[in-house]
Write a structure and sequence with these properties.
The structure holds 2 protein chains of 2 kinds. Chain A is an alpha+beta fold. Chain A has 4 domains: 60 residues, MutS, DNA mismatch repair protein, domain I (3-Layer(aba) Sandwich); 148 residues, Alpha-Beta Plaits (2-Layer Sandwich); 94 residues, DNA polymerase, Y-family, little finger domain (Dna Ligase, domain 1, 2-Layer Sandwich), CATH 3.30.1490; 84 residues, no CATH class. Helices cover 30% and strands 30% of the residues of chain A. Chain A has a 7-stranded antiparallel sheet with strand order 15-21-20-19-18-17-16, with no helix packed on it. A 5-stranded mixed sheet of chain A has the order 5-6-1-7-8. In chain A, a hairpin with a 4-residue loop joins strand 19 and strand 20. In chain A, helix 1 packs across helix 5 and helix 13 runs antiparallel to helix 14. The radius of gyration of chain A is 35 Å and the shape is elongated. Chain B is an alpha/beta fold. Chain B is globular. Chain B contains 10 helices and 9 strands. Chain B starts with a helix and ends with a helix. Helices cover 41% and strands 17% of the residues of chain B. In chain B, the strands form 2 sheets. In chain B, strands 5-4-6-7-3-8-9 form a 7-stranded mixed sheet, with helices on both faces. At the A-B interface, helix 15, strand 13, strand 15, strand 19 and strand 21 of A face helix 3, helix 4, helix 5, strand 5 and helix 6 of B. Strand 13 of chain A pairs antiparallel with strand 5 of chain B.
Chain lengths: 502, 227
């Protein structure tokens, strides 16, 4: 059996997802965004919800005509971004049932239920599950179930909300007979020709013999006749929906305060976690995008250490980041994308230890980044350079395997470790003339003034001679008479104290 | 008999005579094996602050940090280094030692204590090292003494290990205080870090584990401090 999920008034329902509070009131979708009174008069209603239709509003009316019939009528303009999201929701849920599905058209999805757990009389269970899953996401659906994709599509068009056509020939014919020929997807020329012959319904077409129809109307008419029989199974155009879950919104009024943003983010996360729950997945990464009035945008990616479906946990991560975020101009649009993954339980090795609460730890890391600033929290990875103090900070990871491979030039770990002064402290150094072979130097830096009685060096070091970042330095290790071992360097005609060995 | 030996003798007598009065203090705190034998011999208490004082330069405070990092990498636990003066050198530690480290590069002592508060409050990492060794004295003097009790409470709650490296004794709530007793020389730069770690002298100058220090431990500590 095949199932077709259809979202009636698809564009209107998609646009309504931005305004969940409007749902119980009469709403109509205009063909374009009304930008002024004069223009709004020309706007036509292309779709109206049931409440609006009950009050006499119908597609084709202008906006003032609609409002004349229903004073409380609210208008929406088409939202292509929301339509894409609604289509994704529809396809992603069904792709979780079977990969054999087709994006028939906007708001319509055909599913091959053969070989799925919902085959052999359990199709209605699938239909109920689909309605139940999409309802919290503000999508009302009609579902048709039949032996062929085309028949299921016709069933979905008249479903309230589920219509199943059994495989028996009598019931198929009984269902098909009242439909007009346009329901079969026939061209207007053939329809008008058949109408002139007095054939106006599918039932009348079915009574004609196949050979006679092909002889008189050509081979192009054969698929229409077969469709009218309700027995031909056309191959589905397989479709692979996007794996990333996204919720997005373009704001009519720019947002300047965090409180307003929080309200929208909360709603987004509730929707996204509901979708994750429907797909039996958890969030592995989350991407926040904020679009600003001045044309710029801000992207922040969040890696979730312990993938979760918990909206509150995800929200805390966003909130911690946004708490200290400042933007130069107001926000006019935002979106959250979640990469779903399977919920897996990682078996650590015998001596590995895991974090008690990885999600809380991620939140703490965000707080630390906010406190210390960028490039101050992480795990150091040596850079592929011999330049002293060259490294970069990688994000803290719980698994060693995910860390970058160290460059082969990683320095050995002999001797006392150096504690660096960042930046190196400028020093006054004077080489003292001595009778002995050993050198001595007088050193003054910060509030220290002493004599180095043991000196090792110089070690000459240079690099990047081939570009603008070339560097060249000489280093000495010195032991002061007052105690303490330091590293001093001469670079760019300046004496520097790199740090203390400790 | 030295004064310390007399005190130990008196404690022993009192414990023997009034065992019920010392019953509450006789239990040992659980300890954390750092992998550094010089520290593990004494025992680093879980749920307590450990202070390592390094009065002078080149006494090996950086060596202790590197030793802890190597032990963390070897034993498979994570460690936070709250670097009060952004002085840690990853090249000296080596990449392998840094793999299980969360490095927090602070600009001053105040920032380091805020970061320590967040990390200890989180309680996820089994060990946090707060390095204030190179912070200027004027920064450390401004610190509110209450902060150490707050950190102690946080460590106690999470049963993690809080280690603080300071230039002078200042952590009033420290459960154990070590005093680095080495004075490394220029020739020591030619030795490997493993050899230098074995040479570390870390006598105990304070211990509040509940049970009194054994006479041997105190005597060793005093002897090493004197040397």
């Amino acid at each position: 059996m095949f199932g077709v999920v259809s979202i009636p008034h698809f564009e209107l329902q998609a646009a309504l997802r931005q305004q969940p509070d409007w749902e119980p009131s009469p709403v109509a979708l205009l063909d374009e965004a009304p930008t002024g009174i004069a223009k709004s008069r020309k706007c036509q209603i292309i779709q109206a919800n049931t409440m609006a239709q009950q009050r006499g509003v119908s597609p084709g009316m202008t906006a003032p005509q609609g409002q004349a019939r229903c004073g409380q009528l609210r208008f929406l303009s088409p939202a292509p971004a929301q339509e894409r999201i609604a289509q994704d929701i529809l396809l992603q849920w069904n792709a979780n049932i079977t990969p054999n599905l087709e994006a028939t058209r906007a708001g319509v999805c055909t599913v091959d239920l053969r070989g799925t757990p919902y085959d052999n009389g359990l199709e209605e269970r699938w239909a109920h599950a689909c309605i139940k899953a999409l309802e919290p996401l503000q999508l009302q659906t009609n579902i048709g179930i039949a032996a062929t994709p085309d028949l299921a599509l016709l069933a979905a068009q008249v479903a309230t909300p589920i219509r199943k056509i059994t495989s028996q020939a009598e019931s198929i014919q009984e269902f098909l007979h009242p439909f007009t020929l346009s329901a079969l997807g026939a061209s207007s020329e053939i329809i008008s020709l058949l109408n002139r012959w007095g054939i106006k319904t599918v039932g009348a077409l079915v009574k004609l013999p196949k050979q006679e129809v092909v002889c008189r109307l050509g081979r192009d008419c054969l698929p229409i006749w077969e469709r009218a029989q309700g027995t031909s199974i056309r191959p589905l155009h397989h479709f692979q929906p996007r794996s990333i879950l996204t919720e997005s919104m373009d704001l009519e009024t720019p947002i300047e305060q965090l409180e307003s943003l929080i309200f929208i983010l909360n709603r987004f996360l509730e929707q996204l976690t509901t979708r994750l729950e429907n797909l039996y997945r958890v969030a592995a990464t989350m991407l926040l995008e904020l679009r600003f009035d001045d044309g710029t945008s801000h992207h922040q990616s969040f890696r979730i250490p312990e993938p979760t479906q918990d909206a509150q946990r995800l929200f805390r991560m966003l909130f911690t980041h946004l708490e200290n975020f400042r933007s130069p101009s107001p926000i006019i649009g935002l979106s959250i994308s979640i990469t779903p993954t399977r919920s897996t339980h990682v078996q650590l090795s015998l001596f590995d230890t895991n974090l008690r609460d990885p999600n809380r730890f991620t939140e703490t890391l965000s707080r630390l980044e906010a406190l210390l600033g960028p490039n101050r929290v992480g795990t150091p990875v040596p850079a592929a350079s011999h330049r002293p103090d060259s490294f970069h900070l990688a994000p803290f990871s719980l698994t060693e395997a995910s860390q970058e491979n160290p460059p082969q030039s990683a320095a050995p770990t002999d001797g006392l470790p150096l504690r660096r002064f960042r930046p190196p402290k400028p020093a006054h150094i004077t080489m003292l003339p001595t009778a002995q072979a050993e050198q001595q130097m007088k050193i003054a830096f910060a509030n220290l003034n002493s004599t180095a009685h043991k000196i090792v060096g110089p070690w000459k070091n240079s690099g990047h001679w081939w570009d603008q970042q070339h560097w060249n330095r000489q280093e000495w290790d010195i032991e002061l008479a007052t105690g303490g071992i330091y590293r001093v360097a001469y670079e760019a005609e300046q004496w520097l104290v790199d740090g203390v060995y400790d | 008999m030295t004064a310390s030996a007399k005190v130990i003798e008196l404690r022993k007598l009192l414990t023997k005579k009034f065992p019920e009065a010392h019953a509450g203090t006789s239990h040992q705190r659980p300890t954390f094996l750092t992998g550094l034998s010089c520290l593990d011999q004494v025992g680093i208490p879980k749920g307590g602050l450990t202070e390592i004082v390094s009065n002078h330069s080149s006494q090996g405070s950086g060596l202790v940090i590197n030793g802890l990092l190597n032990a963390a990498a070897q034993h498979g636990y994570h460690l936070a280094l709250i670097d009060g003066q952004d002085s840690f050198d990853p090249q000296s530690a080596g990449h392998k030692a840094c793999q299980r480290m969360l490095w927090l590069r602070c600009r001053n002592a105040n920032e380091a204590l805020k970061a320590a508060d967040l990390i200890l409050r989180d309680g996820n990492l089994p060990m946090s090292v707060l390095d204030l060794r190179l912070n200027p004295d004027h920064e450390l003097r401004k610190l509110n003494k209450q902060i150490w009790y707050r950190l102690q409470t946080l460590v106690q709650r999470s049963q993690s290990v809080g280690m603080i490296l300071t230039p002078r004794p200042m952590v009033s709530s420290a459960t154990v205080r070590f005093d680095l007793g080495n004075a490394f020389r220029l020739k020591d730069l030619e030795s490997t870090q493993q050899e230098l770690i074995k040479q570390l002298l870390v006598p105990v100058t304070r211990r509040r584990t509940g049970s009194p220090l054994s006479s041997e431990t105190i005597a060793t500590g005093i002897r090493e401090a004197a040397s």
